[in-house]
Amino acid sequence: MAIYHSVTELIGRTPLIQLHKLDTGLCSLFLKLENQNPGGSIKDRVALSMVNEAERKGLLAPGGTIIEATAGNTGLGLALIAAQKGYALVLVVPDKMSREKIFHLRALGAQVVLTRSDVNKGHPAYYQDYAQRLAQEIPGSFYIDQFNNEANPLAHSTSTAPELFEQLEGKIDAIVVGVGSGGTLGGLQAWFAEHSPHTEFVLADPAGSVLADQVESGRHQDAGSWLVEGIGEDFIPPLAHIEGVQQAYRVTDREAFTTARELLKTEGILAGSSSGTLLAAALRYCQAQTTPKRVVTFACDSGNKYLSKMFNDDWMRQQGLISRPQTGDLSDYIALRHDEGATVTAAPDDSLATVLARMRLYDISQLPVLENGQVVGIVDEWDLVSHIAGDGERFALPVTEAMTRHVEVLDKHASESALKPIFDRGLVAVINDRDRFLGLITRSDVLTVWRNRLQQ
Questions:
Q1: Where does the CBS domain start and stop, copy by copy (predicted)?
Q2: Which helix (H) or strand (E) holds 131?
Q3: Which DSSP string do the residues of 341-394 spell out, in sequence order?
Q4: DSSP secondary structure string for all residues of 140-174
Q5: What is the DSSP string of 198-259?
Q6: Residue 455's pLDDT band (boundaries 50, 70, 90)?
Q7: Are the C-beta atoms of residues 54 and 84 closer than 8 Å to each other?
Q8: H helices then E strands: how many in the chain?
Q9: From the CB of residue 414, how many other CB atoms can be counted at a distance below 10 Å?
């Protein structure tokens, strides 16, 4: 086996796997595992190409600062390269990015600037406009601008495309791609136009993005919103050469996330939200064919960046993307059901240090205290602040010393209106089924249910 001397040498040459456990109709569907790149995504190729080209052209001085606007994966690739080459890196990212990506970026030494994800191109808070403005303000910086950088598609025309062609011995009927910056589509099209002109390109686009409209009608309206990260746009990226796409599929967040979760369960591949979009479109394309075809799509990045979101049932329920069967009572409002093992609880003899650790670990602010399956108290952050009062030794005391013993209990058959007086007093509602504890209802839980009703 070869010995490598830098993680940058591990970029590219990713494996290709044929999927056998999903319904591909008459077609053979292949997934190129770009999540096996060292930074975990296809964007490692782009980051290396753009930095190398900037160095070659003298646009990036030693010790300089790279600035970029990114939905995450290009940023991770750049952070990997910048750390290896000794560049500072400032990344402007939309605030819908997963926490795992932000933690990963900061761990690599990048400065992360969060900006709004609810504004469009031309607004000063739009992530690309923001990054361009920073590049003008910071001395010695270079805005790498993946959306207009020709080294972006170059990465795919010189590596991704010939790799695919070699792996499938030149027999590729269709490639299903998504568009973020447009480099993957543009680069692949350029290479295949010369070496395999019969290969068809199919667009997988998040519902709400304008790109599918452009493919189908040559024009588009204003963009909507979507939760999938990394692909879909509110404008037409010039690098994409979208006019070369023969067919487009719109994929909802629900379908994208569900498909990515199914890929993990059936094929054992942990891939991200954009991969779910591509795979959902590829499956629909395959199932629509009346003759066998060899179809390729990508696992664009790793699903380990979305464990707190797409692979978290509670987050999925909060977004209205999955739901339990409705029972028509207050149990429908409980986000974390005790009978599903989701409620984080404390025992009476747990220490206050243990309680605080659980609050931090699960990002919650209160815990029910259970004894013999019954709620005997509630402890929240204010109880800890009031009881400890600056004396660190009091963290060793049992939770019974600080918990509030008066709890507001409602039977699950009580009316929704019974919740408001409890919330008015700043409390949470304990919901029982007769004597059996079901879970807590907070104000946030009620708001989530109301919002999901509106979306339906």
A1: 336-397
A2: helix 127-137
A3: T----B-TT-BHHHHHHHHHHHT-SEEEEEETTEEEEEEEHHHHHHHHTT-GGG
A4: TEEE--TTT-THHHHHIIIIIHHHHHHHTTT--SE
A5: T-EEEEEEEBTBSHHHHHHHS-----------S---SS--GGG-GGG--EEEEE-HHHHHHH
A6: low
A7: no
A8: 15, 15
A9: 15
What confidence category does residue 324 fall into, taking pLDDT thresholds of 50, 70 and 90?
confident
Return d(Cα 64, Cα 350) in angstroms, integer: 52
Residue 318 has pLDDT above 90, yes or no: no
Q: Model's pTM, two decimal places? A: 0.86
Q: Strand 16-19: give its sheet, edge to edge.
A: 16-19, 28-33, 294-299, 174-177, 200-206, 247-251
Query: pLDDT per residue over 355-405, tens digit each?
Result: 999 999 888 889 999 999 899 999 999 999 999 999 999 999 999 999 999
- Show which residues are catalytic: 43
Q: What pLDDT band is residue 456 in, cutting at 50, 70 and 90? A: low
Count, residues in the chain: 456
SS (H, E, C) 84-100: HHCCEEEEEEECCCCHH
**Long-range contacts of the stretch 288-292 (C-beta < 8 A, 24+):** 288/25, 289/25, 289/26, 289/27, 290/26, 291/26, 292/26, 292/27, 292/28
Q: Is 316 helix (H, G, I), strand (E, B) or coil?
A: helix
